[in-house]
Every structure is written in structure tokens, then in C-alpha cells.
Amino acid sequence: MTELENFTAAVRLQAAQCGLTEVEIEEASGALIETEALRAMTDAGGSVLAIGEPGTGKTLAAIRWLIRPLYDLRDWYLGGDVWLPKHRKPWPFLFRPAKSLSRIAQYDEKAVEPLFSAARLVVDDLGQEYLDKSGFLVSLIDEIVSERHRRRLPTVMTANLTAEEFQQRYGKRVVDRIAGTGRLVVCGGDSLRRKSAGARTVPALVAADALIERRTELAAAAAKVAAEHAKRLDAQERAWMAERVARGPSRILEPKSPPRVTMTEAEVQARKDQIARDLEEWRQRNPQTEPTS
User: Fold this and answer.
1) So what's the pLDDT on residue 181?
2) 94: in domain
3) Could you report the per-residue pLDDT of 200-216, keeping only the tens digit for each?
């Protein structure tokens, strides 16, 4: 497996948790034909609503915007030969087809909260979902835009509709809310399928040479840390030896001797007398046996 394949596989594992398929990830992360949608979403902030005819690259641009942070090599490290994310938790990004919103039950806060709190959110293909008669879905879209604007979180929405059709379907309030918190991008031009082979393209999100350069940087950083650690250990060892030499060689090389007991002549004589008495008592109890020395 090449360096690029190794890293791409690691990114796909993370991107799949955002609600994307492997095909969507592969298409959006490679080199793309430059489109109006792609230019608008390169540095998207706030809310962006991309509308226009099908096939103008809206969904592809939205996915690329969503997964772009996953390709930031500063958020990855090498575990042996495997690329691993620095943080254990999944990236808090969400991709949701508009049809999935119509399946959310009213007052289901558990299902709605991720739409409010995701660090990046894409709601794709508005206009294909079922609009209930109560107007819950329209109010939900309005609330998503409003709440995410309040939390200063970026949102991208796409729709195969004209501006008039979008306003007719979702109402002026939603259009005004998006216009007030972000911008509306009309994606025109030829379909991507009809663009010529010489059309301007933007490069893939990561290149093999960038990965090799990053691997070299990480290896150099690891070597530097190892050298500094060895230097600290060497200094600590020298300090330890110096401290023990200062205490004297006997404190290092010789085991600690038990304290010596000093007795007076009277104490020595009393001890001899006691031993003699003990021996005489033993002989009286054992007249046929002599004690061994």
C-alpha cells in the first residue's frame, strides 16, 4: 500500500462516520473541475445555500467542504506505518440528505440536536423531501439555520431549485433567514458531464509528496524528542553518580554493617558465669551425655 493509499484509507474511516459513502468521499477528495459551487464553498462561513440545475457540482462541492478539515495533516500522527487521528473522538461533521429530515419526528430533540451542534453540517438536495401539512419540516429548516447562526457554526445546503421555486416551497422567512446569516449561490453553467477535458481543475485535497514531507517532519520531531529524553537521562545519571561518590566509596560498594556491641569486663564475666551455670544444670539432667562443642 502506498503512502497516499494508506492515508486515504484512514481518512475514509473518519469521513464515513459523517454519513458519507466511500464513493462520495473518493470523488470529493480527488482533483475536481472548478465550479461556481466549489469556489463559493472553499472558505464557506455562516450559511451557504447553493441552488441551480442538477449536475453543476453542488453536492460534490458541499462534501469537499465538509471533509476538507480531515485532510489537515497537522491533526494526524504516525503509529508505526499507520496514520492515526490525534483525537479519539470522531470529527463532529454531519452530511444529511434532505429526505432524512422528513423522517425526524416532531419534538424528537435527540435527533435534532446533532443538526444544531455539528461543527460542520451539509443538508443536501432540498426539494426532494416530503413536506408535511403541519409545516414542521419548514420550521425545522428555519430553526437549523437560526440556531446554528446563533452558535456561530457553518452550514451548507444544496437544492436543485431556482430561487423562486425555493422561496415558494420554503417561504420567504427561510430565504430571508439564510440571506441574513450567509449567502445564496446560484450555480449555473454547463453540467459537469458536458464540460470539456480542458476545463480548469482544482487539485486533490492531499498529495503523495505532502504526505512524504509530513512523515519526514514527524520522524525528525520524534528523533529530536528521543535525543532530548536521552540527554535528560544522561544528565540525571551523572548527577546520581556524583551524589553517591560524594558520600564516599564505602557507602556505594560495601553493604551496611550491623552495629557493634561493646561490653564491659564485668558484663563479660557475668556472661561467662551464666554459661557455666547453664552447662552444669544440663550435665545434672543428662549424666550419661557430654555436650558437643
Assistant:
1) 80
2) yes
3) 777 888 777 888 888 88
Residue 63 structural domain: 3-217
Rounded to the nearest 5°, which phi and psi values hold at 22?
A: -65, -35
Residues ≥6 apart with Cβ < 8 Å to 102: 129, 130, 131, 132, 137
Is residue 291 a part of any domain in this protein?
no
The answer to whether residue 125 is domain-embedded is yes
The arithmetic mean of pLDDT across residues 254-277, rounded, is 72
Residue 83 forms part of a structural domain: yes
| CATH, residue 19 | 3.40.50.300
Query: What's the Cα-to-Cα distance from 54 to each of 2, 29, 60, 188, rounded to whole Å?
Result: 36, 20, 11, 10
- Alpha-carbon gap, residue 118 to 91, rounded angstroms: 9
> Based on the structure, what is the number of domains in the chain?
1
pLDDT value for 122: 95
